[in-house]
Structure formats: structure tokens, C-alpha cells
Write a structure and sequence with these properties.
single chain, about 450 residues, three-stranded antiparallel β-sheet, 18 helices, 6 strands, about 5% strand, globular, binds acetyl coenzyme *A
């Protein structure tokens, strides 16, 4: 990746020139080239040269940072982590290996893999005092509310890894987050159902341990189903990172001020919670339940297309993918495997999902707007079949995305050009006016 303008074949640098038609002033801006994907116009000097800002609400045309972690080609439906296609990682790798890859840039060798697994495994317990935090929440609290609070509270427990200027502390905080967020997620679930917390077990793999902490109870033996553990691990891989999405950008923005990593990840969890982002998998299931039967699908398709109705087909559409989300394809296959393993032959929700997908993919509205199923479309059905309540779906997304957030945070802190994120605005409010005393206001 280059931060310097490239020289074109004819010897002139790649630039773009803007002309202000009000006064004829010109500004020439460099064009930067990444390893692949769209070039960017470097506008850092624009304000100084013209007195103008750019305006891009929703950041649809804005590259906010330089990154070497994840690449998405939304038109082709491609997702790469450190260059490796998501389909290959989902099939051949495992979640902890993907964590190592995202965090360190390369796949681990056998020795590095064993050491990393041991480190993460040995960080899964949380400070015993942290359990007291849970007791302050109502039993019916949404587990994402608990996640925001308790993950943020980690900064009050692990002072020895909050100095962001110390590379060793940064990596310890990263390991702690990858290891402890699953424990907190399982505790959030246990708290909501009134069961005792289950401690992590070091003899289990990452996904197995999470399933154990979630579904085991002290009074009987719980045996983790290996097919379900494998599916869970795959779901984690599929959610591990996704470039500069809303929650990742939130983590970067929070971190840009120098905030500690635990607080930054809590900010990411808050952003993920929204139904337009990570909350969509919960919303998909609610929508399928609302549709109830295949014959009612046309009614909902009609509503989704109606401009005066704010109903949207949840699990469809994506800001970047204008093609089939590659993660959704893997998820669809995993969904079939899980339902077969659990002996669920006729899941009415799956029937609705399959038919909804078929209709939407052949409907002019969805074709024209390039609305394809996204990763959340099938994940809800799998998670429900495994036994998670809908309120836990986004928590599982947060658990998996923690590694992406922390890798992006670390990359940002280690970028020598990093500055506090401070966007400007197009001000449309009142200009200066004099204060009116209370007794003179109408
Ligand atoms: N159902 C019906 N129409 C839709 C849908 C949908 N799911 N998604 C987009 N559209 C329409 C919009 O109404 C809009 O129509 P218009 O051009 O006539 O105004 C057009 O498609 C473009 O939509 P935008 O909202 O402008 O696209 P944007 O890129 O901002 O939104 C988003 C992307 C938020 C994901 C959107 O597609 C959506 O709300 N989908 C449903 C929620 C969802 O599944 N979110 C999960 C995203 S993936 C993730 O976070 C892991």
C-alpha cells in the first residue's frame, strides 16, 4: 500500500484537480493506490487550500483509514482476511487461528498456534469480583445491555493492560478481550435464565468451551456435540472482521482519543446492537416468526417494496455487498448441517427463509437494488436450533467480532500517521443571535 501519489505512464503523477466555479480557484489533489480496490483521493490538504470540507453523511464515499487487515469487493462478493478468502478460512481453518491471523498478519506455524491457544485458554476466567456487576442488572435486562456495561467495566479490573503506548500491554489486552468476552457472554445468558455461572474449562476448545459455559449446569454432565461446536466455530469465523463497518469505525473513533481498549470495545458493542447492523440476526428471526407461513410471504415482499411502509426485509441488503454476501453462502450450508444433526427436518422458519430468498432473488425490486441475503439471514435459524434465545444472537456476533475490533484498534494505534478522529459538519442552525430574557420569550 502506498501513501504517495503514483506516477502514471506518461510521467505525470496521479492527481485530480478540482475547480471552484465561484472563483476559478484550482486545487490538485493526489490519488493514492491501495493493494487492490478503489483508489482514494487524498483530501487532507483540501480545507487549507479551498476553505471547504467534503460532505459525506454515512461515509458512502469515504475511506477513513489505511488498513491491511480485511478486503471486501462488494460487487464480486469477495471477502479476504489478510488475503485469505473467507470460504477457505471457514472450511480449512478454525476461529482461534483466524484470530491469530487477524491480530498478527500471518497464519501461525504449529508452535505459534499451540502457544496462542494456550494463552487464550488461560485468559478465559474473569476476575471473581466481576460477577458482582451482573447482580446489579435486572434479570430481564437485554444481554447486549449487560455486555456494554460489563465489557466496559473490564478497564476497571485490568489496569496492567490499559497503557495503550506499551506494545506488550496492547497485546495482553487483546488476548484478554478475545478470551474473556465469551465468558462474559455466557454469564450474561446464565444470568438471564437464573442459572449459576459456569466456569471455563481449559481442556475444551474455544467454541466447545463457550457452549459448555452457556448450556452446562452443575447438576449434570454436559457433553458438547462436536458437529454443533464445529458450526459454532464457523459462525465465529464468519463474523470475525468486516473492514470499516459501523461498530469497527466506532471502536477506531473511540480509540483515536487514546481511550483504553476495553472501553473502546464496549463502544463497538453499543454500535453493533442496532438492527441495521448486528441486531439484524435477531430482527430476521422476529420477521420470520411474524411472517408465520410461506403463503404470507408476498404480503411482506409487497410491504418491503412500499416506500410509505418502513418495513424492510431483514437479512437483505448490505452497504458494501451488491452481490451475494460470501458469508451467507457458507452460513446457508452450515444451517443445513446443523438442522440435519439436530434431526430438525421440517423447520417452518427455514421453509419461510428459503422461499423468501427464492422470491426476493427473482423479484425486480431486489434485483435492481442489488439486495442479496447477508450473513444474518441464516445465522438466526442456526442459533435458534442450537438453543440460543433471540436476545443472544447479537451477543454471539459481538463475541466473534471482538477480534476484528481489537485487531483494527491495534493497527490504528500502531499507525504513525494516526490522529484523533474529528469530523467537521455542514452547519445549518442559527447564526449568532442575542440571548432573550425569559420574560420576553413568547
Ligand atoms: N428491504 C427492502 N428495501 C431495502 C432493503 C431491505 N432490506 N435494504 C435496502 N433497501 C432499499 C432502500 O429502501 C433504498 O431504496 P431507495 O433507493 O428506493 O430509497 C435502497 O434499497 C438502498 O438502501 P439504503 O438504506 O440507502 O442502503 P444502505 O447501504 O444505507 O443500507 C442496510 C444497508 C442498512 C444493510 C440496509 O440494506 C438494511 O436496512 N437491511 C436490512 C437490515 C440488515 O439486514 N442489516 C444487516 C447488515 S449486515 C451486518 O451488519 C452484519
Amino acid at each position: 500500500m502506498s501513501q504517495t501519489p503514483q506516477t502514471a505512464g506518461d510521467g505525470t503523477a496521479d492527481t485530480v484537480t478540482l475547480i471552484d466555479n465561484r472563483n476559478g480557484k484550482q486545487v490538485t489533489l493526489p490519488i493514492l493506490h491501495g493493494a487492490t480496490g478503489p483508489d482514494v483521493i487524498d483530501i487532507r490538504k483540501l480545507y487549507a487550500a479551498t476553505g471547504c470540507f467534503t460532505y459525506d453523511p454515512g461515509f458512502t464515499s469515504t475511506g477513513s483509514c489505511e488498513s491491511a487487515i480485511t478486503y471486501i469487493d462488494g460487487d464480486e462478493g469477495v471477502l479476504l482476511h489478510r488475503g485469505y478468502p473467507i470460504e477457505q478460512l471457514a472450511e480449512k481453518s478454525d476461529f482461534l487461528e483466524v484470530c491469530y491471523l487477524l491480530l498478527n498478519g500471518e497464519l501461525p506455524n504449529p508452535e505459534q498456534k499451540a502457544k496462542f491457544e494456550q494463552t487464550i485458554t488461560r485468559h478465559t476466567m474473569v476476575h471473581e469480583q466481576l460477577a458482582n456487576f451482573f447482580r446489579g442488572f435486572r434479570r430481564d435486562a437485554h444481554p447486549m445491555a449487560i455486555m456494554c456495561g460489563v465489557v466496559g467495566a473490564l478497564s476497571a479490573f485490568y489496569h496492567d493492560s490499559t497503557d495503550i503506548n506499551d506494545p506488550t500491554q496492547r497485546i495482553i489486552a487483546s488476548h484478554r478481550l478475545i478470551a474473556k468476552v465469551p465468558t462474559i457472554a455466557a454469564m450474561a445468558y446464565k444470568y438471564s435464565v437464573g442459572q449459576p455461572f459456569v466456569y471455563p474449562r481449559n481442556d475444551l476448545g474455544f467454541a466447545e468451551n463457550f457452549l459448555h459455559m452457556t448450556f452446562a449446569v452443575p447438576c449434570e454432565q454436559y457433553k458438547v456435540n462436536p458437529v454443533i461446536a464445529k458450526a459454532m466455530d464457523k459462525i465465529f469465523i464468519l463474523h470475525a472482521d468486516h473492514e470499516q463497518n459501523a461498530s469497527t469505525s466506532t471502536v477506531r473513533l473511540a480509540g483515536s482519543s487514546g481511550a483504553n481498549p476495553f472501553a473502546c470495545i464496549a463502544a463497538g458493542i453499543a454500535s453493533l446492537w442496532g438492527p441495521a447492523h448486528g441486531g439484524a440476526n435477531e430482527a430476521v428471526l422476529k420477521m420470520l416468526e411474524e411472517i408465520k407461513s410461506v403463503d404470507r410471504i408476498p404480503e411482506f415482499i409487497k410491504r418491503a417494496k412500499d416506500k410509505n411502509d418502513n418495513f424492510r426485509l431483514m437479512g437483505f441488503g448490505h452497504r458494501v455487498y451488491k452481490n451475494y454476501d460470501p458469508r451467507a453462502k457458507v452460513m446457508q450450508q452450515t444451517c443445513k448441517e446443523v438442522l440435519a444433526e439436530l434431526g430438525i427436518k421440517d423447520d417452518p422458519l427455514l421453509d419461510i427463509a428459503v422461499e423468501l430468498e427464492r422470491i426476493a432473488l427473482s423479484d425486480e425490486y431486489f434485483i435492481e437494488k442489488k439486495l442479496y441475503p447477508n450473513v444474518d439471514f441464516y445465522s438466526g435459524i442456526i442459533l435458534k436450533a442450537i438453543g440460543f434465545p433471540t436476545s443472544m444472537f447479537t451477543v454471539l456476533f459481538a463475541l466473534a467480532r471482538t477480534v476484528g475490533w481489537i485487531s483494527q484498534w491495534k493497527e490504528m494505534i500502531e499507525d504513525p500517521t494516526q490522529k484523533i478522529g474529528r469530523p467537521r459538519q455542514l452547519y445549518t442552525g442559527h447564526v449568532t443571535r442575542d440571548f432573550v430574557p425569559l420574560n420576553e420569550r413568547g
